[in-house]
Design a protein that fits this description.
mainly alpha; single chain; about 60% helix; about 270 residues
Length: about 270
């Protein structure tokens, strides 16, 4: 997703410049095309049928819905706490943002610039999980908790308004972070426990933030797990994992992380927030 860029706006602005240039006899270069979509490892037909795998979104008379609302109300008390601050940081779901969230468990500040192969692997894997998540979102059209009961959320009013137009179930952030955690565990199997602990906390941040129900977070975990299982049948996926392994080993802990910051984060996520 490209943030802050309107290709329609660029096109209109370019058209105006072209008209001015034509009147003056000047020639302007053509604008760059929109960035290409990331291609995943699975065709749409190869994606698991998540509507059959993932439990249905809870109805308003469902005990899961009651539990969702109870957790939402209780976690509003976390506003302004260190866990709230972490949830705000975990709102950044770009590849760079995901690498930042996993920096402590990776022991390195991985970036798209210093780890292009790992970046491509994560982006392609998440392209698959995003398609699966979108299928469920469009199918259930489930409301977010703040649309049912008003309460503070950890994002800006503008982001909250945008989220209101994007269904709750499952959590896209959770799907992406759990898929990323599974991929990073495949690259660094010896760090699986710490990687998936951080991935779990990333999903829980959406509940702390007040922008997703607990059931949506759980559905995100299940969605990503199903997609990751399907990706195991892709030779291209396994080749990409091996390439990313070699690249990460060569980094040698580039851009070391702050031990004090990492210790504080580890203590924070060791306790479930609800």
């Amino acid at each position: 997703m490209t943030h802050g860029v309107s290709w329609a706006g660029i096109a209109l602005g370019t058209l105006a410049l072209v008209q001015v240039a034509a009147a003056s006899g000047q020639t302007l270069p053509q604008p760059p095309p929109p960035p290409p979509a990331v291609v995943g490892f699975l065709s749409f037909a190869q994606l698991p049928d998540v509507i059959r795998i993932v439990p249905a979104a809870p109805a308003s008379d469902d005990s899961r819905f009651v539990a969702d609302m109870a957790v939402y109300r209780a976690t509003r008390a976390l506003q302004g706490s260190p866990r709230w601050t972490l949830a705000q940081s975990d709102d950044e779901v770009t590849t760079a943002g995901l690498f930042k969230a996993f920096r402590c468990v990776l022991g390195a500040n991985v970036t798209p610039d210093n780890a292009p192969r790992l970046t491509t692997l994560v982006r392609r894997a998440n392209a698959d999980s995003s398609r699966a998540s979108t299928v469920l979102k469009e199918f259930y059209q489930h409301k977010r908790p703040f649309q049912v009961v008003d309460g503070p959320v950890c994002v800006t009013p503008e982001t909250k308004a945008a989220l209101s137009r994007n269904p709750d179930y499952p959590s896209g952030h959770t799907t992406a972070s759990w898929e990323t955690g599974l991929v990073l565990s495949a690259v660094l199997p010896e760090r699986t426990t710490s990687i998936l602990t951080r991935a779990r906390a990333y999903g829980q941040s959406r509940v702390v933030c007040g922008v997703h129900n607990l059931s949506a977070v759980e559905a995100g975990w299940m969605t990503a797990t199903a997609v990751f299982a399907a990706q195991q049948g892709s030779d291209e996926f396994h080749q990409a994992v091996k390439a990313a392994q070699a690249e990460f080993r060569a980094l040698g802990g580039a851009g070391s992380v702050d031990p004090a910051v990492c210790a504080a984060e580890a203590a924070l996520i060791a306790k479930d927030p609800y």
